[in-house]
Amino acid sequence: VELIYKNSVLINAITRGDGQIGDVITQNIVKMKNFIKNPKDFTGSVR
Domain NAD-dependent DNA ligase adenylation spans what residues (predicted)? Predict the structure, then answer.
């Protein structure tokens, strides 16, 4: 899973699939119990 943030806002959550094709799971990831929705002062991606 890769989480993509811009200015501390989640832009996209995607599965990495085969490295080129994956699924968009943004709506599912925000429902997870320990998901950090808005990390302070962060732009980038987390895998």
Answer: 1-34
In DSSP terms, 3 is beta-bridged to 13, 46
20 burial (CB, 10 Å; 0-12 / 13-18 / 19+) is exposed
Contact residues for 41 (Cβ-Cβ < 8 A; gap 6+): 8
In terms of Cβ atoms closer than 10 Å to its own Cβ (0-12, 13-18, 19+), residue 13 is buried
pTM score: 0.78
pLDDT at 18 over 90: no
> HSE on the CB side for 46, CA within 13 Å?
15
